Amino acid sequence: MPQRKGQLKGSPMSKDQNHQGDSQWPIWEVFVQAKTGAPHEHAGSLHAPDAEIALQNARDVYSRRSEAVNIWVVESKNITATTPEDNPTFFEPAADKIYRHPQFYKIPRGVKNL
Amino acid sequence: MEDESKLRAFEARIEAGEKIEPKDWMPERYRKQLIRMISQHAHSEIVGMLPEGNWITRAPSLRRKMGLLAKVQDEAGHGLYLYCSAETLGVDRSEVVDQLLYGTAKYSSIFNYPTLTWADIGTIGWLVDGAAIVNQTMLAKCSYGPYSRANIRICKEENFHKKQGYEIVATMAKGTPEQKRMVQDAVNRWWWPSLTMFGPPDKDSPNSAELMKWQVKLQSNDELRQRFVNLTVPQASVVGVALPDPDLKYNSKTGNWDFGALNWDEFFAVIKGNGPCNRQRMRARRIAHENGKWVRDAAGAYAAKKRAA
Ligand SMILES: [Fe+2]
Ligand SMILES: [Fe+2]
């Protein structure tokens, strides 16, 4: 293994030269489908330079024991999500619409398989 | 004050057993404590590959080599699950990794002990992964969603780690006199450091009360340690290896196995960097990181070329 003179490989002094150019690849969110017919579920995230490598890394990180039959990766910055602060106004409209549930309706006693 | 009422609402959610998610309001202390805990946990998984990696090329059979290789690969995966959950709290991956490589980040002191013989591999799987399982089973129920989910994923994989280790111990304990001696020696060396993995005694663990109030931890260090001892004593007697503690005794009043005093001076010395292998471990990590640089560079260059095309 080539050693640079005066700078031991693996020494704390070699930080700067190895650090630059080695910063962050974008974060990708990984969604895994456990079996056909099942929905994709968020498994976690990882860093990768592009979608192809993101998929390969996702297989190695999140499916070492056949946990997936299909994987989606999407760059985190492309996900738009609701925020907890908006929750009250955003989800509230559904809260008072109990007539959207079957329990709201009364049916005559004795009727079956309705 | 606004923060005051937010804090009350936050604590009420935790009290009600709700999980806290990344974008939810949380006290700065909660965020800081989690970042510290999760990154230390992640570093431990990564550094934890080194003592065992030491024996991959010298495994006594192909079966053992495949098992050990898969286990060590899992530990890398555990590190990645955990780094990714730390990132949800707003830290940068390269920053956290740099803290390990070039800074003073802590990791579990157990990985600063050497693996002298093949019996150490069995003993680590049995005792060290066994202790980690006790801790991680608790963490799987913690209040922070991403950390809880990472630990659930980890726990699913740990059982194999412990069983492959225990199988090695059981095999050697039935083997030649020399193998028996070897496995007993490994257990003698790893038993006490395994017990310190749960951290200092409750009375010397200043962060514990806060962590338990916010349900980052659900059991104290001493409770977890006791649970591990209770689980392990019968496992030792099944394979006929002795645990190196003359004070180990069943207490019929408490239902616990009482055990002797731990050497906390040694524990703190190892944490401060003066264990048998601290420098060797850090050097190995830096070399691995530097030697991987060309792979990262190549992947980045290839991605850039495809984008340009
Ligand atoms: Fe692990
Ligand atoms: Fe493990």
Describe this structure in words.
The complex is a heterodimer of chains A (114) and B (309). With 114 residues, chain A is of the alpha+beta class. Chain A has a domain at 27-104: Ubiquitin-like (UB roll), CATH 3.10.20.520. Helices cover 19% and strands 18% of the residues of chain A. Chain A has three helices and three strands, in the order αββαβα. Chain A has helices spanning 15-19, 51-62, 87-91; strands at 27-33, 40-47, 70-75. Chain A has a three-stranded antiparallel β-sheet with strand order 2-1-3, covered by helices on one side. In chain A, strand 1 and strand 2 (40-47) form a beta hairpin. The relative contact order of chain A is 0.13. By secondary structure, chain B is mainly alpha-helical. Chain B has 13 helices and two strands. In chain B, strands 1-2 form a two-stranded antiparallel sheet. Chain B is globular, with a radius of gyration of 21 Å. The A-B interface holds A 9-12, 14-15, 18-19, 21-25, 27, 43-50, 53, 60-61, 64-65, 81, 83-84 and B 21, 23-25, 70, 73-74, 77, 80-81, 84-85, 87, 92-94, 98, 101-102, 149-150, 153, 157, 282-284, 286-287, 289-290, 293, 296-297, 299-300, 302-304, 306-307. The structure holds fe (ii) ion (2 copies).
Brief summary:
The complex is a heterodimer of chains A (114) and B (309). Chain A is of the alpha+beta class and 114 residues long.
- Poorly predicted runs of chain B are none
CATH topology of the domain at 27-104 in chain A: Ubiquitin-like (UB roll)
Which structural class do the helices and strands of chain B define?
Answer: mainly alpha
Distance between the termini of chain B: 56 Å
Main sheet makeup of chain B: 2 strands, antiparallel
The rounded Rg of chain A comes to 25 Å
- Uncertain spans of chain A: 1-21
Overall helicity of chain B: 55-70%
H-E order of chain A? HEEHEH
Tell me roughly what share of residues is in helical segments of chain A: 10-25%
Strand order of the largest sheet of chain A: 2-1-3
Query: Beta-strand percentage of chain B?
Result: under 5%
CATH superfamily of the domain at 27-104 in chain A: Phenylacetic acid degradation B
How many runs of DSSP E, i.e. beta strands of chain B? 2
- What is the count of helical runs of chain B? 13
